[in-house]
Amino acid sequence: MKMVGVDVGGTFTDAVYYDDQSGELAWAKAPSTPRAPAGGVLAAMDRNGVDLATTDRFVHGVTIGTNAILERRGAPVWVITTKGFRDTLEIARTNRTVLYDIKTLKPASLVPRQRIIEVDERVLADGTVLRALDPDAIRQIASRLRAEPPAALAVCFLHSYLNGSHEEAAVTILRAALPKWFICHSAEILPEMREYERFNTAVLNSYIGPLTARYLSELSRLMRSRGYRGAVHLMASSGGIETAERAARFPVHTVLSGPAGGVAAAIHLGGLVGVRNLITYDMGGTSTDVCLIEDLNVPLTSEQFVDGLPVRTPQIEINSVGAGGGSIAWVDTGHILRVGPRSAGAVPGPACYGKGGVEPTVTDANLAIGRLASSLKLAGTVALDESLAEQAVQRIVAVFDSLDVPRAAEGIIRIAVARMVSAIKEISVSKGYDPRDFALVAFGGAGPMHAVFIAEELEIAHVLVPLRPGNFCAFGALISDVRHDHLRTHRAALIDRELEGLEDAFVQIEAAARSAMTEEGLPAGDVSLQRSAGMRYVGQSWDLIVRLPAHSSDSVALAALFHAAHERRYGYRAADPIEIVSLRVTAIGRVAKPKLSEWSITGALAAAQQGSRQVWFAGNRCNVPVYARDRLPRDARIAGPAIIEEMGAVTIVPPDWRVAVGSVGELHLKRGAQ
Hints:
Distance between the termini: 40 Å
Strand order of the largest sheet: 19-14-13-22-23-34-33-30
Mean pLDDT: 90
């Protein structure tokens, strides 16, 4: 089987090609093309020499939806809702996320009030119908909307998570009357209580739906024109993959698509090399994504936010910060040097790209102090101009009289590192984890260049750099299985020893999960199911997702699982009664995966050295040997300072650190003697 994985980043698009017959594993990068992302995807595959006519599987990590939300350039959205609930999206939640700033504003709703239409229908909290839906009222709304340019529409009725018949009937009428519109309803997106979160998740799905559908249609058309006949799969935020058809229907599932691939790949690598506790550190051109992995388990959550807006679909628990290689350094009104979140992106890119950028970025700073070389071509084509980098950093020097270019550049890097350290502390220290108990897995184009400095701040003793870290997320797309998450609201108190109806409810959800996998052509023998439940102490507002064993309805056993999960997450357990609020079934469809070959390079370490150069470390200039990673022999040991270069990434080994080459070509960086 021949397969291709692609990840679109803010600056570069990465591709990985694998042929299981020959064992060939090829990697390539191409500059991203934000105005027409499919162009960057095809360019990256072309650089890998991919023949789509003989390719069997294509998996794609995307940022289309995420960027549309962040940049507020999604489709105009209309909402049809229950009479009396027109202001649900505007009211949102009344909690104050910033306690001491009285001027803090809630994120603006994506739907102006004038585009929200009320319907006189009502389902009660137990699922019974108080007022039936009038089909003529929906037809009148459709007639009104036909006068508007085709856009997106979300149907969001009260308590539809228990009884979705009104939403389904409305959507049937609307899709027939408005064939050019993107239409969805809240119960199919998130059949869960709490109307604000459910409504907003449905709105986000509609907001990015038309843009995602157009992109996938164009990408599929271009790939078909090149002879591709297989299915197009996309990475989902949950760490699995799903078909392009499903992603076009539920684009909100792909909001964290790209970073999810890196987490999946890190778990795969951790299993290969025997490191089970990991903190992933993915630094690209525009942002850094971090995730804490305990015992190689995927950390899932349904409580994520994108630009302040809740997204309640299952997602890997990833924390993102606007600090990447293209992050711009600037001086605020308080005369303080800052880095990011604004980025130079792919166009014009850092000043050293020579494409018109003049503001200093983290990449320019690294080039100015020798950690990057002007002879190194990013993605194989982007040449770096050291003089342009120094001119950009000089803009900071002009503000601070006490600095010269090297010290200003080091200051830019240290501030970027501090921001990334804070992001890691949020997922570790803030949740009761000691980062010293974890290895830092560094990837992304800029990750290995800064990993050791982050490890020093957090006192992490082990840094792990995978082979081809700049393409690691694309590789993660290829080793990910098909995944569907099915959810049903189900209220049950853990009072009786045996929970009546629990097993029957799970069986029904599992039947639907198996059916969905069968429709996608997956053999029953390749599908596994995992149960979990949303549980909480009675009186709590929010629930905790607890993994459950198969066929268990013993309330004592379930309570013990919840107590343990609650104590692990929040540091305590209570004697309060417990209730179940939702049931979840995750269906995993196993697919063929690439295999990392044993690292077979042998010979003398000297053969891998390709010269040396002057590099600044902690205010001092050092003469540093430079190695080609592709020529490093297995089990080689290198004492820092050293620089290891490869296609798409540079690994920095400062003084007092050592690096060893592992069994599948990975690098193990540790402080002091090994």
